[in-house]
Amino acid sequence: MSSVFVTGSADGIGLETARALLRGGHRVVLHARSEARAAQVRTAVPDAAAVVVGDVSELTRIRALALAANALGPYDAVIHNVGVGGGAARREATPDGIERILAINVLAPYLLTALMPPPRRLVYLTSGLEAGGRPDFADPQYTHRPWQGMQAYSDSKMYDVVLAFAVARLWPGTLSNAVDPGWIKTRMGGPNATDELPDGAETQVWLATAPEAEIGFTGRYLKRRQDLKANPAAYDESVQDRLLALCAELTGQELPR
What we know:
Elements: E1 3-6, H1 12-23, E2 27-32, H2 35-44, E3 50-53, H3 59-71, E4 77-80, H4 100-115, E5 121-125, H5 149-170, E6 175-179, H6 197-209, E7 221-223, E8 226-228, H7 237-251
């Protein structure tokens, strides 16, 4: 049995991931952004070990979430599933003054990674749209560039792969990989999505819990258990280091080396 923490697990792919883990006999700690959503998921998934609460759009709440999750650990695996789409018609900022997509999709998994003891396995959810991401460190928050919501989303999903690969390089004791779940029929994916919910969770569950003989690799980008080529920027160690520096600057927290 593995102990697994899944962020963003109150609905959609995250909830399906948690349910699949529980069906496999594993211990699961879930995450919801509010007490109301936590109450709903406790009812929906009564076999979960616990549900921790934290709005990952705010840095102080991410720090509190890390403390709450750590108190329920240790974990064999952490699945960074939480995320937001790119449909906003205009640039939105969090209470910390950070562009919202970057804050939720990139800074939240980064800060949780930095504040939680390294598990044996880390899984970062990305998207096939990471292929169109651009590492613009001159204006990563779209402060000066014209706002493009889907480009900001693609950038964030590319940065998730960059983060997974950076952690793989710097933490050799942790198997750190990125997963494209596909275009899944969820609230975020919409009714026209092509893939079913179980398909969107299966690879993460496999990476988190399969025998060590199967999951002996790190620094990979996968979909349906298949090794894919990621955005070329993700393999560039200078891009990895610049992303880590940006995240440390915005969060005030260095990634332990």
